[in-house]
Specification:
Elements lengths: L4 H31 L8 E5 L8 H15 L3 E5 L6 H8 L7 E6 H10 L11 E16 L8 H10 L5 E4 L5 H13 L4 E4 L3 H9 L5 E5 H9 L4 E5 L25 E9 L4 H15 L2 H9 L9 H21 L6
Parallel strand pairs: 1-2, 1-3, 5-6, 5-7
Antiparallel strand pairs: 3-9, 4-7, 4-8, 4-9
Helix pairs in contact: 1-11, 2-9, 4-11, 6-11
Amino acid sequence: MTRDARPQAATLAVRLLGASIVCGAALAAAVAPTTAQNYPDKPIRIIVAAAAGGPTDVPARLASQILSPKLGQPVVVENRPGAGGAIGAREAAKAKPDGYTLLMGNTSTLAVIPAVSKSAGYDPVKDFVPIAKITEGFQILIVHPSSPWKTLKDFVDYAKANPGKINYAHTGGGGLPHLAGEVFMLKTGTKLTGVSYRSGGESNAAVLSQAVHATFENIAILGGLIRSGKVRALAVQNRTRTPILPDVPTMAEAGYPGAEANTFFGLVAPAGTPAAIIKRLNALLNEGLLTSDIKANLTKAGTEVNPGSPADFAAYVAVQHKRWLEVGKAAKVQIN
């Protein structure tokens, strides 16, 4: 792809996403009267394209807790890790579009992997219809508390003096933790070595055991580890500091603007799922997310809750996809 064609490709991806929503809604409307009337009359499964214990588990199990009592059927979370999330996403994309198989999508599966991989095996625009965004968050750069790096400057100075000698854990090539490291290297002029694990939980464990030097992981699973002193946070990859870790600076405050790595989690369904089902699930999730207890707990975890319509979620994903497409090309990341 030529340099001039890249912005056109990103714009096309945004337009395709909007078009897929319209086409998917039309197809769903055509079959809705016969398939959505008695929905649900059996258990529903939510595929999580990562191992248990990672940050995607939290919103998936939250969605299960919200939906199950309201729908009167079990909503079961199934973990399908591998390939940075592509394996689980492929399984969900091929499922029957009847509302009984859903995917807890995230930045990796819906925006990053499709932007940097030619062989993901699914198209987030054509193969899925958005239901609702659950939470938003960001990544944090952490190291072991015994490491010599007290500040981000210490870390960057060492990395510049020792190219490739600092290794960082991520959840597979093309996933957000991988690209969070890539955007960090782009903005700091450093060279780190990535080491792949199956989940964010495993990446954190690798830092705790000192199998790796660092990782860029999600606020949702790092807050407790940081507050307890089990890991040291050097910077948050967000535009503003988080209230739950007010002493941890942003990348921009530390001198590296543009190194942000924001993340989202949201529920999607296979393309062709009846519009009536999508609308119902969206309404139930939004209602549950806005209850005071759930919203307070999510805020305490450092995540943001901004419910909206399926179209709102689609527009948000389009922006994220464009951003990571640009990062992937700048970092020359291509996953085959």
